[in-house]
Write a structure and sequence with these properties.
153 residues; 7 strands; 5 helices
Length: 153
């Protein structure tokens, strides 16, 4: 199955798609750190394991970010050393949904073993992934310029 078709099938089956329910967590209980820049938010995981529950917390942050004036996201996975397949699928869906909404969502600093997991889940080819946070910033800014030139924003 092609990666985009696979993502659509996940959305249609309710595995993290738009119809999924999202539990809003109190910010003080969040396991993610957010650093706001001029055109995007950088999300960092506070912990070494990216679980499905943590992916739901990221979903909440992504949803909140979509409501504000700074809508683009960079997900920095530099501290993540392990990831569940469910979390990997959720992250891929979040990225696809952000792009469907006309926002940028770039993932950076992914460890090789996490990259292998995403590849095993047939998700690696659909991700906007960079080796460094600086490169992720560049992509967000280029995509923002592209949207402005095309009049989408």
């Amino acid at each position: 199955m092609a990666p985009s078709a696979w993502l659509k099938s996940l959305t249609q089956t309710g595995l993290g798609g738009p119809s999924s329910s999202v539990k809003t967590d109190q910010r003080s209980n969040m396991h993610v750190k957010i650093d706001t820049k001029e055109k995007f938010h950088v999300i960092r995981i506070d912990g070494a394991v990216l679980t499905a529950d943590l992916a739901e917390e990221i979903r909440s942050v992504v949803k909140d970010a979509g409501q504000g004036s700074i809508r683009n996201l960079v997900l920095n996975l530099s501290g993540v050393t392990d990831c569940s397949p469910e979390a990997a699928r959720e992250i891929a869906l979040l990225q696809q949904q952000a792009y469907d909404e006309g926002r940028s969502f770039v993932i950076c600093c992914m460890a090789k073993n996490i990259e292998s997991l995403f590849d095993d889940e047939e998700l690696l080819d659909v991700l906007n992934l960079t080796p460094t946070e600086s490169e992720a910033w560049d992509i967000v800014q280029m995509e923002e310029i592209e949207r402005e030139m095309l009049g989408e924003d």
